[in-house]
Design brief:
Length: 254
Amino acid sequence: MAARYAIANTVVPEGAKAPEKVQLKIARDTALSEEKEKAVDAAKKEKVEQREGLKKRTQAYEKEYADHQKKLVDLRREAKLGGNFFVEPEAKLLFVVRIVGIIKLSPKPRKVLQLLRLKQLHNGVFLKVNKPILQMLKLVQPYVTYGYPSLKTVRALVYKRGFGKVTKQRIPLTDNQIIADKLGEKGLHGMEDLIHEIYTVGPNFKQAANFLWPFKLSAPRGGFKCKRHGYCEMKGGDWGNREEEINELIARMN
């Protein structure tokens, strides 16, 4: 029983004999009060355990991130000492931002943008790097810009502009319980669990990414350069793959 349900406290005057129905009511309320106390205590205990578990997992995640960065630095140094080239690991995570509105948009790109959940200007979503996604991005290349977000960028987006999809409603992520209620069965009980699952593209990435409502970003401070041209063109523009440079754009839009 939830703590928010109030239970009536029926008081019989001293020396008066309560009718049978009132006695039954008092007995029922007493049983409900005991059940409520037990439920509230169990919920408190579970919440404390969840917070402790989340704290330990967060520390483990921080160690994992630091170890990964240290390993990359060591491999780069080793390659440099041996006179070789170090090939950076392939990115697993994409962040895609829509930079064009709906005017003069043909049906096929419109449908692809809808499938990618990019229905409005300056909407952004996390996607897994795989062949189907890359093929879809080719079809909408002139209307989006994308790249490989860093841990700092993922964390800033989720903490500042993170909204969850709860019963088809856009709910701000103000409490870990919102995440636990929706993704608890997947082992995600808080913000850091969600960020870790997104950044590392874990086994429950699909559920975690779909739980997050598409990010509604602001227009970038300083504006775009030229939306008609690609980022990799000689003239310079905005649409297309920016790789790690997407972090600078998100910082201006967040």
